[in-house]
Amino acid sequence: MVPPQYYLLLAAAIFCIGLFGILTRRNALLFLMSVELMLNAANINLVAFSVYWGNVTGQTLSLFTMALAAAEVAIGIGIILTLYRNFGDVDVTDAASMRW
């Protein structure tokens, strides 16, 4: 059996990569991909603790998190399409000019 520390280290690395992507990127598509990385890191933690404690609650919460991620992508793609249609670019810093 693989120790849970390996899973936690992997999840921390993936979460840090996602956080770095959110803080440094201006492209909306890369922003959404970074959020997905952070959600996947949370899923790894949930499943790792679920296996460690012999409980399926973490795996069930992981499925709900995947459903949340799918809904987030569906709404995010709509926002990205609106940004591209209005500005011709998917740079999130241009969204401040979408005010009335």
TrEMBL record:
One GO cellular component term: NADH dehydrogenase complex
Keyword Transmembrane helix tagged: yes
Protein localization: Membrane
Alphabetical UniProt keywords: Membrane, Transmembrane, Transmembrane helix, Transport
Gene3D superfamilies reported in the protein's UniProt record: 1.10.287.3510
Membrane topology designation: Multi-pass membrane protein
Record-annotated membrane-spanning stretches: 6-23, 30-54, 60-84
Domain of life: Archaea
Main location: membrane
One MF annotation (Gene Ontology) recorded for this entry: oxidoreductase activity, acting on NAD(P)H
A GO biological process held by the record: ATP synthesis coupled electron transport
Family, per entry: Belongs to the complex I subunit 4L family.
Stated name of the protein: NADH-quinone oxidoreductase subunit K
Originating organism: Haloprofundus marisrubri
Phylogenetic classification of the source organism: Archaea, Methanobacteriati, Methanobacteriota, Stenosarchaea group, Halobacteria
